[in-house]
Specification:
This protein is 59% helix and 13% strand. With 381 residues, it is of the alpha+beta class.
Length: 381
């Protein structure tokens, strides 16, 4: 049985972990609850896109590429997003000639003909996702550490509130503000416990796993290997060569990874002998979301194939993290469930802060009262 001293220490850890991370935790949790509707928000913010026709047989990638090159001559097409269950259109990210490297234009195209509709007016859904994943400008590992902090809060909260079943239905509305908020805080935490563990664990994994992966790659890759490959690639990149058909390359990718349903097509060094096309997406009838095939666009030869079903246990686990975290695999009903449950951590960060502030104010009042009583006794003496 946990001693009272240990419980007090855990309570202190729980309180300060919540106070230190409270604001960022609220921002990340609130934006995360809303961002499950990222695609729907983008359509809502761009009503003209929602009215575009949805085609059962979308235009070919080659037709889309031709339309983009015609509309934006000399521009660099960096990414093409294919139509999905929510968005009826193609989207492309284009960097126009002379524009800074980090400035891209998001362009919408009709799915039936590939015709360019024009730049997308609002990217509200994407901004919310950037806020949730990167806090706009921060590295992703910050949000990963917040996931770890959330796991610490969950673990300490479980130990502190050992009578989970009793507190599950405890709500003393007629008591003080602190008691009411404390009951709400505990019941919300208990009712959403399983979901909170899932969100915290997947968020911590996605935020910190790339950090460890980059560190491992840095330690295992020698500087001589990196220096030897860079000059050669630059020399080759200056040679213009004809490109393979994007549709043929997509067919090659689907042969390499059976069941691949590409969501994004990324183009790198297009027009050179080192040009690469990456097809990234989901697997048909599978939850995994990180399948990817990189192909030399000049030769049509696959250079790198990542099928999470055959890449090992940890690769499969990694491929499940994003669908489980964002709930984008079960339709609109699951998104609403994620939204309501996702709001509870945001409420917990607010209620926990209010409880801490009220307790601190109460202690100050008690200290002032004690000092006043001591002063009165001294005066009487």
């Amino acid at each position: 049985m946990t001693s009272q001293r240990t419980l007090n220490r855990l309570f202190t850890l729980h309180s300060w972990a919540g106070i230190v991370t409270g604001l960022l935790m609220f921002i990340v949790c609130f934006s995360g609850a809303v961002v499950v509707f990222k695609n729907e928000i983008d359509l809502w913010a761009n009503p003209s896109l929602a009215q575009l026709p949805r085609s059962e047989h979308p235009a070919s990638l080659d037709a889309v590429m031709v339309q983009l090159k015609t509309r934006y001559p000399g521009a660099t097409v960096e990414t093409i997003a294919l139509p999905d269950a929510v968005n009826p259109s193609y989207f492309a990210f284009v960097r126009e000639r002379g524009a800074p490297a980090n400035t891209r234009t998001k362009v919408a195209l009709r799915s039936d003909t590939g015709t360019v509709v024009g730049p997308v007016d609002s990217q509200l859904g994407q901004y919310l996702r950037m806020l949730h994943v990167f806090l706009f400008f921060g590295p992703r590992w910050i949000v990963g550490f917040l996931g770890v902090a959330m796991l610490v809060l969950i673990a300490t909260g479980i130990v502190i509130h050992r009578k989970i079943l009793a507190e599950l239905f405890t709500q003393r509305w007629g008591r003080s503000f602190r008691v009411v908020m404390s009951d709400l805080h505990k019941s919300a935490g208990i009712w959403g416990l399983g979901f909170h563990i899932l969100i915290a664990a997947t968020g911590a994994w996605m935020g910190l796993a790339p950090l460890f992966e980059q560190g491992t790659k840095y330690l295992t890759t020698s500087s001589t290997e990196a220096a030897a490959t860079k000059p050669a690639r630059k020399a080759e990149a200056s040679e213009p060569v004809p490109m393979q058909s994007l549709d043929a390359l997509y067919a090659t990718a689907q042969q390499a990874v059976p069941g691949l349903e590409a969501r994004y097509v990324s183009l790198r060094r297009w027009g050179s002998s080192t040009a690469e096309v990456g097809f990234t997406g989901n697997l048909r009838d599978h939850l995994a979301s990180t399948a990817r095939v990189d192909i030399n666009a000049a030769t049509g030869v696959a250079k790198k194939v990542h099928d999470p079903r055959t890449a090992g246990f940890w690769s499969l686990v990694n491929s499940l993290m994003e669908p489980l975290h964002f709930g984008d695999f079960g339709g609109l009903a699951l998104k609403w469930l994620y939204f309501f449950l996702g709001m509870t951590p945001a409420f917990l960060s607010i209620s926990g802060t209010l409880i801490w502030l009220d307790a601190r104010q109460q202690r100050r009042r008690e200290a002032e009262a004690a000092q006043g009583a001591a002063g009165g006794i001294a005066a009487a003496g």
